[in-house]
Design brief:
Blueprint (H helix, E strand, L loop, with lengths): L2 H8 L10 H9 L4 E4 L8 H9 L3 E5 L3 H13 L4 E4 L5 H12 L5 E4 L7 H10 L1 E6 L19 H8 L3 E5 L4 H11 L6 E4 L7 E2 L2 E3 L3 H10 L6 E4 L3 H13 L4 E4 L5 H13 L4 E4 L14 E4 L6 H8 L9 E7 L1 H13 L4 H18 L5 H8 L11 H4 L4 E3 L1 H13 L6 H9 L4 H5 L16 H13 L3 E4 L5 E4 L4 H4 L6 E3 L1 H8 L3 E4 L5 H18 L3 E4 L5 E2 L1
Parallel strand pairs: 1-6, 1-7, 2-4, 2-5, 3-4, 5-6, 8-14, 9-14, 10-12, 10-13, 11-12, 13-14, 19-20
Antiparallel strand pairs: 15-18, 16-17, 20-21
This protein binds adenosine-5'-diphosphate, magnesium ion (MG) and zinc ion.
Adenosine-5'-diphosphate binds next to loops.
Cofactor: Mg(2+); Zn(2+)
Catalytic activity: Couples ATP hydrolysis with the unwinding of duplex DNA by translocating in the 3'-5' direction
Family: Belongs to the helicase family. RecQ subfamily.
Length: 556
């Protein structure tokens, strides 16, 4: 038995390393600069905690969340390891205790928020106490391309140079771009050993579904898993509250969680979720990084996440104990428009926007996939895999058809009308529905007028959604969301490529068209009138209706 294996069982109480851990622990313990990419729940913490015990001196751990640091310190102390944290959440006593054990040379792990690095005193302190290793948890926070960018992470590179000690960085975000950025920002001038470890989480069942009756779909999913701990992610704070109430109405233990809540209330939800069995937390993405509950049995997305990385991290919170876990991600044309608009209207510079669109494209491709989802997800992270047999598409292969002809008709309608219209008008042209708007513009004289009459309107809506999903068309933010054709669509128009579409999602979409009302100005009285109108519409027409604001907020 190696020393590492001995500590693994005597200190951490584990019988064996998880896949990948042994090699990483070995490299880090030997003082190699290391970048380890492992899935969420893969066991990254151990990969710096154990080497910290094997190395001389103190290991500084940079971690983005106070809650996460405190949990780890508590667990380490309980295992008899001298560990402490310097965070803004410390009491005076706690801080004093940390300094005392540092001075006495007892401390092995010192956790620190990146913000600490901004103060000059920190470097002086770290120089004085003799650091043997810098460990960077959630290292993707150094990436400006990622979704958790923390500017203070940029100070870590300078810290490494100043202390001249090995650095070990850990993350679950592994796309090529982020990887390259982590290496250049944290290891400048030194090339780390890179460990890219298995992204597959075979115990997590993957499934997507087109929004049909979104609330009912989530309630049905939860009802089939009654009594199990689960998370429902929503795009808006308001929705977390209404959906949690709806779940309670059906007898579930459920609470909401979002960034707008008081810190105390949020902590209470976190603690309840950790302790109780079978609590459902309905949350925005604010709920997550600090959650370390091994037996979350399911994760549902009531709205499409913003990128494939976000999707992977969020579903990755399920089934950390290795037992079967299930996921369901709902999406619809409105989600795609919302996420596109968030990227387009965000403040990010142009190149970053292009990358954000690409990440969204990857997720949309996954949502509209026609064969094994896991294979597609893993391919995005650079892993080749066989069809998994444990995703919705392997369970029930979708009914697909060659959609090339339909897509060409739609593209032609878009181009002949100067890329100036949204789906509604384009569909009227395709099915030959001569509305006033069509007659006023002489669009009933277009060669494409009526060429799509063989398909009903709702099917065309699903085709337009899938075209967005395949990134063949995009809503133009500068022209009220009118569709523009993308470069990716050209080979289809030229007859050099074909498109496969799913028929099942089309059939489903056909059942329930949504009624939307556009509001040009935010106004409280107008809003309440609209809400009443929406309710009346939803009740009388038995279809979902929304109020959509110019900032793309959706009110259901
Ligand atoms: P990550 O940071 O990669 O998401 P964690 O370090 O939080 O993962 O570990 C996830 C869970 O796996 C924790 O509950 C941890 O105790 C457990 N774990 C880590 N290593 C092992 C191991 N070798 N054997 C069993 N459980 C482990
Ligand atoms: Mg972790
Ligand atoms: Zn599969």
């Amino acid at each position: 038995m190696t020393r590492a294996e001995g500590l693994l069982s005597s200190v951490f109480g584990f019988g064996a390393f998880r896949p990948g851990q042994a090699e990483i622990v070995d490299a880090v313990a030997k003082g190699r600069n290391t970048l380890a990419i492992m899935p969420t729940g893969g066991g990254k913490s151990l990969c710096y905690q154990l080497p910290a015990l094997l190395r001389d001196g103190v290991t500084v751990v940079i971690s983005p969340l106070i809650a996460l640091m405190r949990d780890q310190v508590r667990a380490l102390r309980a295992a008899g390891v001298e560990a402490g944290a310097l965070t803004s959440g410390n009491s005076e006593d706690e801080t004093e205790e940390v300094f005392r054990s540092l001075d006495e040379g007892r401390l092995k792990l010192l956790y620190m928020a990146p913000e600490r690095l901004a103060s000059g005193g920190t470097l002086t302190l770290l120089r004085r106490i003799g650091i043997g290793l810098i460990a960077v948890d959630e290292a993707h926070c150094v990436s400006q391309w990622g979704h958790d960018f923390r500017p203070d992470y940029l100070r870590i590179g300078a810290l490494r140079r100043a202390l001249d000690v090995p650095l070990a960085a850990f993350t679950a975000t592994a796309d090529e771009e982020t990887r390259v950025e982590i290496v250049s920002r944290l290891f400048e001038g030194a090339s780390p050993d890179v460990f890219l470890h298995g992204f597959d989480r075979p115990n997590i069942h993957l499934a997507f579904d087109v929004k049909d009756q979104p609330r009912r779909q989530i309630l049905t999913f939860a009802a089939a898993r009654r009594g199990q701990s689960g998370i429902v992610y929503c795009a808006t704070r308001a929705k977390t509250e209404t959906l949690a109430a709806a779940l309670r109405d059906e007898g579930h233990a459920a609470c909401h969680y979002h960034g707008g809540m008081e810190a105390d209330d949020r902590r209470e939800v976190e603690a309840r979720f950790q302790q109780d069995d079978g609590l459902i937390v309905v949350a925005t993405v604010a709920f997550g990084m600090g959650i370390d509950k091994p037996d979350i049995r399911w994760v549902a997305h009531a709205d499409l996440p913003k990128s494939i990385e976000a999707y992977y991290q969020e579903i990755g919170r399920a089934g950390r104990d290795g037992a079967p876990a299930e996921t369901l991600t709902l999406f619809g044309a409105d989600d795609i428009r919302l996420r596109r608009a968030q990227v387009d209207e965000g403040l990010a510079p142009g190149e970053r926007k292009a990358a954000d669109h690409a990440r969204l494209n990857a997720l949309l491709g996954l949502a509209e996939a026609t064969s094994c989802r896991r294979q597609r997800l893993l391919a995005y992270f650079g892993e080749a895999a066989e069809p998994c047999g444990a995703c919705d598409l392997c369970d029930a292969p979708p009914d697909v058809f060659d959609g090339t002809e339909a897509v060409r008709k739609a593209l032609s309608a878009i181009l002949r009308t100067g890329e100036s219209f949204g789906a509604g008008h384009l569909i009227d042209i395709l099915i030959g529905h001569a509305t006033d708007k069509i007659r006023a513009r002489n669009h009933d004289g277009l060669p494409t007028f009526g060429v799509g009459g063989d398909l009903p309107k709702a099917q065309w809506q699903a085709i337009f959604r899938q075209m967005m999903g395949h990134n063949l068309i995009r809503p133009d933010p500068d022209r009220h969301g009118a569709f523009r054709m993308t470069e990716a669509a050209r080979p289809i128009l030229r007859g050099e490529a074909t498109v496969t579409l799913r028929r099942d999602t089309i059939r489903k979409a056909a059942g329930r068209p949504a009624v939307k009302m556009l509001v040009s100005e935010e106004n409280a009285t107008l809003l309440s009138a609209l809400k009443a109108k929406r309710r009346a519409l939803a009740e009388s027409a038995k279809v979902p209706a929304y109020v959509i604001f110019p900032d793309r907020t959706l009110i259901e």
